[in-house]
Design a protein that fits this description.
286 residues; Immunoglobulin-like; Rossmann fold; eight-stranded mixed sheet; five-stranded mixed sheet; 26% helix; globular
Length: 286
Amino acid sequence: MWIADNWTDYQVIDCSRGEKLERWGEYLLVRPDPQIIWDTPRTHKGWQRPNARYHRSARGGGEWEFLKLPEQWIIHYQNLKFNLKPFSFKHTGLFPEQAVNWDWCQKKIRNAGRPVRVLNLFAYTGGATLAAAQAGAVVTHVDASKGMVGWAKENALTSGLDNAPIRWLVDDCIKFAEREIRRGNHYDAIIMDPPSYGRGPKGEIWKIEDSIHPLIHLCTQLLSETPVFFLVNSYTTGLAPAVLTYLLSTELHPRFGGRTHSEEIGLPVQQSGLTLPCGASGRWEA
């Protein structure tokens, strides 16, 4: 498992009975997590009075209960800074487990010894975008949500990367990739974090099990002749890391060679000393 264990401003303190107790900077949050199916004693005092708690509804969705939490605050990861706030459906605007991939991407970019153009699809609030830009890459950041792209720009400003070579685009990722192929544009690295389920601009249904292979195939046509890496993230239960390895290997190895490795990603849990699984990532590298 690849573990995001370089955080100082974030920590999973404990997890039990379908919830996790987390420290985001100086604030404690309790949020649901469907993978936490164990029932262990909740001995940490933070369980009793967190700064905020997300209550899931039996009818779907849920709502935040705020006890003492600002509307917005900032946490650091190494030299990056992220603006946080409680979004709908339990999110805060950041997936801290992805830091293990940010570190890997930065290492690959810095070791390339040449300019690297990165395409980040389904780029959300820009964690991977900022990490790549900080490492010296030229980044194209694409997400269908105007609000998320705006939030990513705020994170860039807060991190001192507002003048970095980042192209911010509000667009459907598949349509954008198709247009880029027609334009003849290419990238040295691709990052994608596709949703498990969604709808396209014309109501097209996206299911990752049906659509991930065509998407990877499409995006391989955007790679330069000497690509550096290809990273795919998945939070879909049942989509094993070995599936990501197979998908990337069959699409990339015949043309570029290289190697592919996929693993679960996770976060260390303070109370138990164990690791909380948080999805999977597949990495191809030259």
